[in-house]
Amino acid sequence: MTVHAKVRKHVQETPDTKPPEEAPVRHIDVHVGNRIRERRILLGYTQQQMANLIGVTYQQAHKYERGINRISAGRLYSIASALNVPINYFFDGLATTGTTETSTRQRMCLEMARNFSMIENERYQDALSHLARALSQPPSE
User: Fold this and answer.
1) pTM of the entire structure?
2) Are 34 and 102 in contact (CB under 8 A)?
3) Cα–Cα distance for residue pair 32/135, rounded to 1 Å
């Protein structure tokens, strides 16, 4: 048996397991992707608009947001610039959150913020802000 055959046999017999540090790294990628998505929605950008801003395809932007593809330091800098946030914004809350899934309530808040930012009339924005504040107060008896 040649040396190459022995190496191939050894590689084939080695169980296909991920290194122990792979799970936390994946968690970080998903967290950063979620933060990108949250900020993009807050600013009212579509994924296509975001992709154009950072110079990638729509599919690539989608993969970044899902945490499927890793983001290089240079690309993260471009994303931070496009979203007008510091780079550490993407890592905020990383150690404190146990889950990276966006809850229904968080999605609703993001959608509300996006819709609010799209209202051009400042009086309407002000009225909506007052309404939300009034609704958040406990009812008086």
Assistant:
1) 0.59
2) yes
3) 33
